[in-house]
Amino acid sequence: MVGSGMKVLIVLHHRFELWNAPAWLPERLRHDFPQLEITHLTRYEGIEEHLRDAEIAITWSLRPEQLQQAKCLRWIHSPAAAVHQLMFPELVNSDIVITNSREVHGPVVAEHVIAQIFALAKAIPAAVRFQQKHIWAQELMWRGRPRPRELAGATLGLVGLGSIGREVAQRASTLGMRVIAVREHPEKAKPDYVSEVLSPFQLDDLLTQSDYIALAAPLTSETRNLISAQRLSRMKPDACLINVSRGPLVDHIALADALRNHRIGGAALDVFPREPLEPDSPLWDIDDLLITPHTAALTEKLWERHYSLIRENLRRYLGQEPLLAAVDKTKGY
Asked: Which residues are tagged catalytic?
């Protein structure tokens, strides 16, 4: 049974300021839920003391030895969409509910994917490079590969049809693109704006059909290195790969090789196996690769959207109702 006086522990610490909870968030929670004890830590030092009597934790991660201290913990909310860092056996096998923020990030990350598709279709990175050299490159860009092209009528292949994938599909369909998708359960009802849904075993079929491939799948043992050298060889010679999911989904050595040898048309990466991307990474110098520094979800409205989800789920938790964005711990997402 839930009741008054329960403790909510917020502990988020990151070198990038936007990933840290703003000062107004715990204050607003105290105002909206005066019956709760809200504790906000900006450092992980001393977290064990507060975990002992916390029933709810809002945090990126938790170590197994810290979980042992959390005897009262019943619910963990992650402000991230990816929760692979929480998928250790002790937590997976516990009764603790995990929720994530996939619905918070979906619309904004989808906007980023569409921006990347436009940039690649219209050869914007090449135009910027020519601008920096003061070159009027109309003929050069037309002779280049791939040429600037239209999105209407092009095929977008989505790997993943979750909160991000659905938002991307809807926007791409509005632009006149044909959208096909791979998802784990293709038998689920197909959205109207998706032409065809395939099973994971049909990923190669998606790759051979698509002009643009966008990765929006969680990181699991099955999706690590999903886009391998063999899979890249299935893509059209002028097709482009976009990853806004997690870096390890792509074999970056194989991708760099495919781009340098012009076996695919281009790529846009927002995520990498190690972040920040090392200054000496060869990826920086590949002309047909557009790099954004994990900015797909950045917006001034981010924490307002976080707060709406947290507030609604706290209301549901107090009312013993099902929580939004619950994670299936057996699948890892």
From this structure: 246, 275, 294
